[in-house]
Design the sequence.
């Protein structure tokens, strides 16, 4: 198979030239909206940064969910704005106070995006304020950082709506008369946690508690949720001395590596370094079982298992309680087929024999 | 979150980048096999690479997942903090969603 074509080569090592505001701000030079030099972007970010007094009005991420839900934010406007975003900027100094921003609706998201695209050029053109054409016949001039304020408030409104939806779902579920006792207990626990759980507290380095809001409901789970679960399962396995060298929980990256290897039909160590690392680890510790999540047809999550001791692979679905309940379906999707292919190829190699895979092509449901 | 915490095998035999070698080449590979090569300083945050890649392929950076050795790259990671070596590969995965039965 021919190697993939190189689509581009990018050098990110060049140092940006020093940024002197006098050379750009008010110069009416063209703002580099793509590949913006870091120094220029940093200077614009400083212009748009909320003053400390106003930033303090935005709730911190560790505020408990129940308290977060009590807060009032400006409403989001769905009004259609047909004015040119560039006409929303002025060289006049700001004339309004923060009360004005607190009392007026947040402009629509699409228009905020348009303003964000236009603000760099407006800044280069010497603009110092935003003209709110919606009020006072466009005579008000709000600070440029109002754009940051509106975007922050818009996010607060959306995130609060998500958490409210989650809390309402909990209430609805708890009101169902036929609720199983263990489900009621789990829902009660989740509801109680909302009194102490921060609405957007960091969870490790990748996720925040806001990711958990979407778990309380019937919405589809994202790869973030799946990898959060795998990280939790992995930590629980690591805490069990009897399991730690027998069972491995892999994140989504494992299935992706299998898929990539199958797509490119490269099964060597150089092109599949992650799989090579797994192979080495599996052999070194004599691992018995490997569990991993797989996304199929871009709309479904299933669990995969490789049992190295018995030479079996299998897939399964989780029921609503997270219990593996369904056997492998006859309509295998391409991802599972690729896993099968990769494992078969691996087993045919000398190194794979050291993994103690069986000679027969066997697949186990679980 | 460490590799061990994510259930990934550790890399005992890593070769550290040569001292004084301040830049490395990194290959970013999409799920369809398309490759983009980046030359980047060891100390530069990889969010710069992620943003440049997203801009080049015309996608929202938040809709793309960047993985090194199967683990998600965070905004504050740098090639140095991840012990990346010259010609290492970053895999790109689009955001995935799904339900269950």
Sequence:
């Amino acid at each position: 198979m021919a190697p993939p074509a190189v689509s581009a080569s990018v050098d990110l090592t060049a140092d940006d030239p020093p940024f002197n505001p006098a050379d750009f701000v008010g110069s009416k030079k063209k703002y580099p909206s793509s590949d913006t030099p870091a120094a220029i972007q940093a200077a614009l970010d400083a212009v748009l940064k909320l003053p400390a007094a106003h930033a303090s009005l935005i709730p911190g991420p560790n505020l408990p969910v129940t308290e977060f839900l009590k807060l009032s934010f400006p409403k989001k406007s769905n009004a259609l704005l047909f004015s040119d975003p560039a006409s929303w900027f002025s060289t006049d100094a700001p004339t309004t106070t923060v009360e004005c921003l607190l009392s007026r609706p947040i402009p629509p998201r699409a228009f905020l995006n348009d303003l964000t695209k236009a603000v760099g050029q407006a800044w280069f053109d010497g603009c110092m304020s935003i003209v709110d054409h919606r009020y006072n016949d466009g005579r008000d001039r709000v600070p440029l950082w109002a754009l940051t304020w509106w975007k922050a408030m818009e996010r607060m409104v959306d995130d609060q709506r998500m958490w409210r939806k989650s809390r309402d779902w909990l209430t609805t579920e708890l009101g169902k008369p036929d609720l199983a006792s263990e489900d009621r207990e789990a829902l009660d626990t989740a509801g109680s946690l909302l009194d102490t759980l921060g609405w957007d507290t960091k969870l490790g380095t990748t996720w925040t508690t806001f990711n958990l809001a979407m778990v309380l409901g019937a919405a589809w789970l994202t790869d973030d949720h799946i990898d959060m679960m795998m990280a939790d399962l992995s930590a629980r396995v690591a805490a069990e001395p009897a399991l730690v060298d027998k069972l491995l929980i892999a994140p989504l990256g494992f299935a992706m590596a299998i898929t990539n290897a199958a797509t490119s039909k490269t099964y060597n160590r150089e092109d599949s370094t992650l799989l090579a690392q797994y192979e080495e680890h599996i052999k070194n510790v004599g691992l018995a079982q490997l569990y991993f999540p797989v996304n199929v047809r871009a709309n479904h999550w299933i669990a995969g298992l490789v049992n190295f001791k018995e030479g079996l692979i299998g897939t399964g679905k989780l029921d609503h309680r997270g219990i593996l309940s369904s056997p492998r379906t006859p309509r295998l999707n391409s991802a599972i087929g690729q896993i099968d292919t990769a494992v078969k190829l691996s087993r045919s190699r000398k190194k794979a024999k050291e993994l103690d895979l069986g000679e027969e092509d066997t697949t186990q449901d679980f | 979150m460490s590799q061990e915490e994510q259930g990934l095998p550790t890399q005992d035999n890593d070769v550290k980048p040569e001292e004084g070698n301040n830049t490395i080449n990194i290959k970013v590979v999409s799920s369809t096999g398309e490759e983009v090569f980046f030359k980047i300083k060891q100390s530069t945050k990889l969010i710069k690479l992620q943003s440049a890649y997203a801009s080049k392929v015309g996608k929202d950076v938040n809709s793309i997942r960047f993985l090194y050795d199967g683990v998600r790259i965070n905004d504050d990671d740098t090639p140095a903090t991840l012990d990346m070596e010259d010609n290492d590969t970053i895999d790109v995965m689009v955001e995935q969603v799904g339900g269950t039965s």
User: Anything to note?
Assistant: Chain B touches chain A through 46 residues (CB under 8 Å).
